[in-house]
Predict the structure.
Amino acid sequence: MIEPNSPLARAYGWAAEPLDALLQVSDDLLRTVASGGPNTIHTLAAVLAEREAEARADPAAWADKLAHAPRVELLQQAFGCVPPGFQAALGKLGHKAAPRATYGVLHRACTMPEFMLVLRRRTKISAAFITLLTAPEARRLNARLLSKLAFEDTEGVEALLEALALRARTAPWSEHLDQLSACETPKQLLEWIEYHWEKPFPMPPWAGDDLLEPITDANTLRRVGTEMRNCLAEQVSEVGRGLDYYYVTRGTPRIAVGLHLRAGKWFATQILEARNRRPKAAARRQVLAHLTRAGIPVDIDPETYALIERALGQRDQDDLRIRLI
């Protein structure tokens, strides 16, 4: 019997329960399960994903098959065919059973040459990656672009495919495919997509006040960045991912304030004028007063604060915070 929270239960996940019924009638299957690695886990899980009802109806016969039949024969019986690369792809799913639906999706992907190029070159495959890779949106990509998803030395493949899926219904694919195909890595693809088809900005962490207003969409962030000739236009991706947020003064002088999320809390990390210049102390003090009332602290490392406080002989904390930001 597979005990709850045991290594076998954790390895087989949803498949542990139907597999346990078969183990009750076969010591040979127990030995196979106990000694098997990732390929065994995913072969058995894939077969049960497709044939669980039949296995429950005749546990003795299926326990015998799972214990003694070659893996390719088991997969052939479960899926009707074993496309090239399917067994190898199963072994890349890791040390735990994937969600039930993943195995059928992976099997279909292995029948499509354009997807096999991607799957063959990856050393690890996640269930999310398979689902997104085989989504209708990904089928719109040409072969050259799709092959770039096989790069292993960059992050963001899943995020790239998610971005494609979110924007496929409205994005003008035909006019952008050449530009997308010119990108060399998934990271470059993701950056291009986020710049042109960015996610809607999340809700601002603070609604703002009579001095500062949040920049709530990418076009406004780029426009303000262009007006102020600073780096705001390059921060669309970080804001879209919920890591940063920017505010701008409602009047003059035009000042931008950057907030950053760390450990679940927002901190003010930047107060900038045009051309990334530092505003005058009076303007910084005014901005800080509004941030303080809003409960948003300035991001200063305590050790750095103490060191500079001693060096300056400064005891006015507000003034010191102004000096540091």
In short: The two ends are 61 Å apart (CA to CA).
